[in-house]
Amino acid sequence: MTPPYLEFQDADGLPLTGGKVFTYAAGTSDPKAAFTDSTETVQLPNPIILDAAGRAVIWISGSYKFVITDSADNIIRTVDNVTSFNATAAASNSYFQSFSGNGSQTVFTLSTDLGTDENSIMVFIDQGGSNTVGNTPFFQSFNSIAAQTVFTVAQNLGTDPAAISVYVLDGAKGYDIKRPVTDFTISGTTLTLTVSPGAVSNAVLVFKNPILTGTTIGKGFEIQNPNTYTLSGTSLTFIAAPATGTNNIMVFAPSTLVGAAASSAAAAEGFADAANLSAVNAAASEVAAAASAVTAANQAASFIGTSTTSVTIGTGAKSFTTQTGKNFVVGEFITVAYSVSPANYMWGQVTSYNSGTGALNVNVITIGGSGTQASWTIALSGERGVQGPAISDGDKGDIIVSGGGNIWNVDTTVVATLTGAQALTNKSVNGVTPTAAGGGTNFLADDGTYKTVGGITLRTPIATTSGTSVDFNSIPPGVKRITMMLNSVSTNGSSSLYLQLGDSGGVETTGYLGSGFQTSANGPFTTGFGFGGGTAANIVSGSIVFNLLDASTNTWTACGLLGGSNAAFVYYTAGSKALSSVLDRVRLTTQAGADTFDGGSVSISYEL
Fold first, then answer.
1. What is the dihedral of CA 363, 368, 370, 372, to 10 degrees?
2. Residue 90's CB: how many other CB atoms inside 10 A?
3. In 10 A of CB 231, how many CB atoms?
4. Which H/E stretch holds residue 388?
5. What's the CA gap between 438 and 607, in Å, rounded?
6. Domain ranges of the chain
7. Are 251 and 236 contacting, i.e. CB atoms less than 8 angstroms apart?
8. Closest CA to 586 of 605, 566, 559, 564
9. Distance CA 258, CA 331 (A)
10. What confidence score (pLDDT) does residue 543 get?
11. Which of 75, 131, 295, 434 sits CB 3.0–4.6 Å from 450 for a disulfide?
């Protein structure tokens, strides 16, 4: 039952008197009609206006988004995916049927018409596979006497040391697990340790876990993707034929009934059948999981082998005879190490392996040590990293290049640390001594180049005896401070002196912030850093300093002071300017370029 008579409340829990309900298609802002009754013949207004009690009769069809507001259109709440519920007659009861595959049949006839929607049924297929336990679990403990290394076990455990687990008591530390081949060997009922545990009770523990035999693991039934079959009435068609088996195909369709109580009970029975089926599958999965755990342990052992083939350590093709039934696959990387001294080893890729005979061929790429040996431990490895570059000679400190590269040497007497931008104080690298500009200090930057900090570069002065502006271009990137020096500069008019900055796009003539002063305040200036008005007879000298405030926005500040030599007066200015790119030029000019220089000179210096 869905209640069509709805009551809405405001944020305080009071009736939403005169409130509004806007109805839209779910997930959109597209208006969608609601109705006065279940016949859907008379539409409600949109928005629906609530009565004095905040109530309204609202019938819907499909999915909606409701936006509820007060009478002044202030949103109280938005609720999306409001969906109608339609009762339907019984279409079918729950359905179950099983079939037996023959390995080639793809079409199976159902006893009930299940329609054409593949997603309305569930299909399970037995994935087959079986294993048997090849041996029973084995455990035995031994007391040892002084110098004893050989022990006789009560069962023939074969000759593969990787198939058993051996623990030896090591004083107060407890039991240590021993490595196959290196620490012990097994031959039938004879266990031989490399080192005696001494005279100790229960000194040695021997385990052998059960081993599954067979080609595949029992998987049980798996639900099939609807993309692997089609449904048409009573015909179920698989794209690929299921395997041969007895009742290895199960088809289940849940009840489509959502109506009367009696029919719902029938649907419940169908779901109970499904629950029982799930319980059976869960039990089967538990058995499969236990078998998989045992198989996983044996799979791990299948990537380790031994060999007594006499082989000389070296690169290129090498052949060994190891145990049968291993999982050495062509293209895998393996390490073949001398069991007595693993520093003598060969590493490369499997080129072939015969599981029936144990014949193993390897293309050796990298070696360690030397000699001809006949006791090898073979284990799955991984691909090595790229060898690093050579480093020149000098006083040596070792660097080991990870991933299998050679050991190289670096001159540690001239470069103490190469992390980040570390000061080198003009030390040489490989015999090259950098020269710091302007007497500054050299640093090795993260990009591998030298940078100079603290040096001052002084440009050649330019005469200000003609023209309307003087430019200093090609200022290098990285400059943090610029000083402009004026010496007895004069013009033929009374316009203010202006300083302007620029970048690769040219000198910028807008966006300046600041003011200047002579005998009274002048400004604000927007086209440059101005000093205030003057007269044609004025002769000025002094300096203006530009400082980089923010490199991310290329913002500079300015502060300058000029004094007159023909009369008692002082100019000064201050301000800021954000450039569109990195600064590479500065200009001395007059306001709007109205006057011409007729005396003096100007220069700049800059610091990194």
1. -50
2. 16
3. 22
4. none
5. 9
6. 5-83, 138-208, 304-380, 396-453, 456-607
7. yes
8. 605
9. 58
10. 94
11. 434
Contact criterion met (CB below 8 Å) for 200 and 169: yes
The answer to whether 267 touches 254, Cβ cutoff 8 Å, is yes
Rounded Cα distance between 208 and 191, Å, is 13
DSSP element (H, E) containing 13: none
Q: What is the CATH number of domain 456-607?
A: 2.60.120
Task: Specify the amino acid at residue 228.
Answer: T
Place of tokens 């609807």: 226
pLDDT in tens, 223-249: 999 999 999 989 999 999 999 999 999
Beta bridge partners of 98: 250
Closest CA to 27 of 80, 76, 74, 66: 80
> Tell me: domain 5-83, CATH 3.30.530.20, correct?
no
Would you say residue 397 has pLDDT above 80? no
Whose tokens are 């629906």? That residue is: 48
Q: Say which DSSP state 517 is in.
A: E
Cα→Cα distances 551→64, 220, 344, 421, 463, Å? 53, 66, 57, 18, 32
Q: What would the two tokens of residue 97 be?
A: 């049927």
Buried b (16+ CB within 10 A) or exposed e, 237-270: ebeeebeebeebbbbbbbbbbeeeeebeeebeeb
Alpha carbon distance 58, 117 (integer Å): 33
Report pLDDT for 412: 46
Pairing of strands 5-7, 55-57: antiparallel
**3-state SS, residue 128:** coil
Fold of 304-380: Elongation Factor Tu (Ef-tu); domain 3 (2.40.30)
The pairing of beta strand 316-321 with beta strand 359-368: antiparallel
**39 has a pLDDT exceeding 70:** yes
Pick the CATH number of 138-208 from 2.60.40, 1.10.10, 3.40.50, 2.60.320: 2.60.320
Q: Would you place residue 272 in the very low, low, confident or very high pLDDT band (cuts 50, 70, 90)? A: low
Q: Give the span between the Cα atoms of 244 and 353, in whole angstroms.
A: 32
Residue linked to tokens 């690093």: 388
The token pair at 484 is: 């402009």
Q: Please report the beta strands in 396-539, taking only residues with DSSP state E, as ranges in sequence order.
A: 396-400, 407-411, 422-423, 441-444, 450-453, 456-458, 462-463, 469-472, 481-491, 497-503, 506-507, 513-517, 521-522, 529-530
Q: Considering only CA atoms, which of 231, 223, 232 is closest in space to residue 250?
A: 223
Rounded to whole angstroms, the Cα distance separating 536 from 539 reads 9
- Hey, CA dihedral for 417, 423, 426, 432, is it positive or negative? positive
